[in-house]
Design a protein that fits this description.
By secondary structure, the chain is an alpha+beta fold. It has two helices and eight strands; from the N terminus they run βββββαβββα. The protein is elongated.
């Protein structure tokens, strides 16, 4: 199951000399992922609904329970984007750092086994997918990651480096 991956945090462009160096720019949040449950019918505990979603998409592992899994917390907020900040680059150029997250959502139907009452609803949560950096003057290559990862890197480049930057252009096919 391919999940939609979105840009969640972004830094301004940072220029490093030819020998590379340490990154100092801080990232700012550009999208706030949210967890939620909406439904019609008898109310169900949100954590239980989200735990069922976690099991369905493989986010819950054997031994996990609804109360201890962050995926099931509707009040969960994304962490500090600078916690995943790259430390340095060995090469020079104009760089942007970014974070990505994916939304996981599904419609559901629950029938109470004792009363036959039906609840219909929609559940949504998110996972942190990772972080990266991209050099504005370097075109990405299709072999460098999944399509979703490349799209997030290109979006980060488009927003920080500019829409005409090499990194914001469509990836080149492998071998070109």
């Amino acid at each position: 199951m391919e999940r939609p991956v979105r840009l969640s945090a972004l830094s301004d462009v940072e220029t490093l000399g030819s020998g590379g160096g340490k990154f100092t720019q801080r990232k700012r949040r550009v999208w706030w992922p949210e967890a939620s449950v909406s439904s019609r019918g008898p109310e169900l505990p949100s954590r239980d609904v989200l735990f069922s979603l976690a099991e369905f998409v493989g986010e819950a592992q054997e031994g996990d329970d609804a109360d201890s899994l962050a995926f099931t917390d509707v009040a969960r907020k994304p962490g500090d984007p600078d916690a995943s900040r790259a430390v340095s680059s060995e090469g020079g150029g104009r760089f942007v750092q970014y974070d990505e997250a994916s939304v996981v959502e599904a419609d559901f139907r629950y029938t109470c086994p004792r009363t036959e009452a039906v609840t219909l609803g929609h559940a949504k949560s998110w996972t942190t997918e990772g972080s990266g950096s991209v050099e504005c003057g370097t075109r990405l290559h299709a072999s460098e990651g999944s399509r979703a990862d490349l799209n997030v890197a290109r979006e980060a480049a488009r927003l920080s480096c500019g829409p005409k930057s090499a990194a914001a252009q469509a990836p080149e096919a492998a071998g070109q």
